[in-house]
Amino acid sequence: MKLTQLIHYSTTKSLQIIKWIGFLFIYLFASGSLDIAGSYTALVQLRKVLGISLLLIAVVLGFIGWRYGKQLTITNPRHFGRSKATFSRISQLIIIFAVILIVQSVWGWLVVHHILDLPTNQKVINETVTHLPLWNNLFAIFLAPIFEELICRGIFMNYFFNKDNRLNNILAILASGMVFGFLHDMSFDVNWLLYSALGCLLAYTYIHFRDIRYSIALHVMNNLLSIL
């Protein structure tokens, strides 16, 4: 690789890293606005801040979704898009969900028997749900999966693993899974490994179906299971 090509590649990747972190930051900022709204006790103030928070979340989600779609119009070697929901595809999705159920069941058993501590991320969710339970549950079940799939799967893979070959796809699944684990648990312990395993399953779903709606659906089902 020539020096000019190396400089161009390094500059491009550095900008992509900064942009990806930017997407992650605005997601965390938008989701954190619900916590701010929940801290108000006066009904009038609560309604105003909640309204601003919901508007902010809608704007940020719309922007990230637009950016993901824009990326696919520029370069899309894996041909991601919308695919018809056939019986075969739904059956495959159910099988993947069954694997997630097994992981979650083992995980829950380890927590109940005090072999593992309850993940910090789950503790935070349990705490925030006590404030604005309806909106926080709706966000956790339906909106967080859309945000996280767009950022951790869609935009992440478009930036850093945008080639359609076996090695690149395997690396994309592993890297996306580990990033997902890191976002939910920074301790690099067994809980991190389990979060990363779930992230890998979601990443595999995205690449396998070539349609982000499938990984979003799987993520929604998983979060619903966690809330229940």
From TrEMBL:
This is CAAX amino terminal protease family protein. Belongs to the UPF0177 family. GO terms for molecular function: endopeptidase activity. Residues 133-225 form the CAAX prenyl protease 2/Lysostaphin resistance protein A-like domain. InterPro entries: CAAX_protease (IPR052710), Rce1/LyrA-like_dom (IPR003675). The keyword Ligase does not apply. GO terms for biological process: CAAX-box protein maturation; proteolysis. The chain crosses the membrane at residues 20-43, 49-69, 90-112, 132-155, 167-184, 190-209. It comes from Lentilactobacillus kisonensis DSM 19906 = JCM 15041. Keywords: Hydrolase, Membrane, Protease, Transmembrane, Transmembrane helix.
